Write the structure tokens for this entry.
Amino acid sequence: MRVISAENITFRAGAKTLLDGVSLSVAPGEFVALVGPNGAGKSTLTRVLAGELKPASGDVTLKGKPLTAYGPREFALHRAVLSQSISVTFPFTVGEVVRMGAGDRGGRAIDEFAERALADVELTAFHDRIITTLSGGEQQRAHFARILVQLACGEEKHGPGLLLLDEPTASLDLKHQLDLLEAVSRCARRGVAVVAILHDLNLATLSADRIVVLQDGRVAAAGTPAETVTDDVLARVFRCERAVGRTPPGVPFVLPHGISTLR
């Protein structure tokens, strides 16, 4: 059974088609990275999967049910979303923000979820800090801890669900990029289905089981990192020539040497 399945999704904004017949299914425990140039449709697809945007055509099901079959509370227990940019203007503490992942639930179990999530993102010492006093990267880690609490609440009632991430590493230093992706991989190992937009192709090849490359609202390539991060794909999609090398175990890495002349 697939956790999330999207079939032939088309989405338009006015006269512009942002997604054109895109299909994507993710199994329990699978980590799928969405990559592609700016404007390729990655965020639009993620928002369709999250139920935030309704496609012009095509179907999306979560655990075999249409997204519209879920009420808001139930939906939040089956899928969690970490957006690219989150702004908090009220003086909440980090601990309060993290507990928001539990909705209106409280009690010792939620306290334990929050403590574990803060430890996972190395923010235990920031529990009582006002979140607006933190750096951008620290705030992103706090919001990821909130998402971990939401996932834990959902798993407690319904088992592992869906985690959607839009450029989760964008504001993080290298260590915390790796730490966050390892935490995401731990979620996948518990059975959570993960879809993450990643601009860093090296991080995508390091973390993802499967990579889906989008270009102009369509799937340009899909498969394992070795199958998708190739000179041919990068030249066609990113216009980067001779960019892909190989480490000794055969994991691809990207170091472009020039701009492709392909159009």
